[in-house]
Design a protein that fits this description.
Layout: H1 6-28, H2 38-57, H3 62-86, H4 95-108, H5 122-134, H6 138-164, H7 167-179, H8 181-188, H9 194-213
Helix pairs in contact: 1-2, 1-3, 2-3, 2-7, 3-6, 3-7, 3-8, 4-5, 5-6, 6-7, 6-8, 6-9
């Protein structure tokens, strides 16, 4: 199959980063407060198309794979952080209650009892710990910790795809997951279920790795 040279890949990557900068400019200097312009989504589409071309036609050396993964992460981060940027307040599913519960943990230095999340406080503990370490407010802490965990799951999508099929399928799976609507929602709504996108994939990958390293002898 046809493979373009490393020089062509660098050219496509340069075009990608230029479009990405334009995308950020369009987002920050939008004319409507709570909406993203058509230019924003058109530029996202161009960037996704460029990555798809790179996956299918570039020689996937280790260096090129890291470069493509970095581009996927930039798009995925953009799609998850942008909704938080354009809204000044909290967004998500019952975010005010999550904020109240996380604040109670910080103020009392222990998990409050008698609440619906008292026995499942991982989400709030991670958010509170991030806020305690970084000094960020609740919204910024959730973006930093919970949103980042959603992005980390894309690595495991790649690893599972590479393990089961090949590097190309792993990259394609990571790209499609990064732009999938439900996956994006899980990344910016900042809810406890967001951890599910990470834990399930980690468990699946560990199962594959254990099966490969320690095959069952029958």
């Amino acid at each position: 199959p046809y493979r373009f040279s490393s020089k062509t890949l660098r050219l496509l990557s340069t075009v990608f980063f230029l479009i990405f900068l334009y995308n950020i400019y369009v987002l920050l200097f939008r004319t409507e407060t709570y909406n993203r312009s058509y230019e924003y989504f058109i530029s996202i589409s161009f960037m996704v198309s460029l990555i798809a071309v790179e996956i299918f036609f570039a020689y996937l050396s280790k260096k090129n794979v890291f470069l493509i993964l970095a581009q996927i992460f930039l798009i995925a981060t953009n799609l998850r952080v942008a909704p938080q940027i354009i809204c000044s307040g909290l967004i998500g599913i019952d975010p005010w209650w999550h904020q109240i519960f996380a604040t109670k943990i910080l103020k009392s230095s222990h998990i409050p009892l008698g609440y619906s999340y008292s026995k499942l406080p991982v989400f709030h503990l991670v958010t509170s710990l991030t806020s305690l370490i970084t000094g960020l407010d609740y919204k910024s802490s959730t973006i930093t910790s919970i949103g980042f965990s959603n992005l980390i799951s894309l690595i495991f999508v790649f690893l599972i795809g590479r393990f089961v099929f090949n590097v190309k399928i792993g990259l394609l799976g990571s790209l499609l997951s990064g732009i999938a609507d439900w996956y994006i929602h899980a990344g910016f709504l900042m809810i406890p279920n967001t951890f599910g996108t990470v834990l399930i994939l980690v468990i699946i990958y560990i199962i594959f790795e254990l099966r490969y390293r320690f095959p069952i002898i029958t």
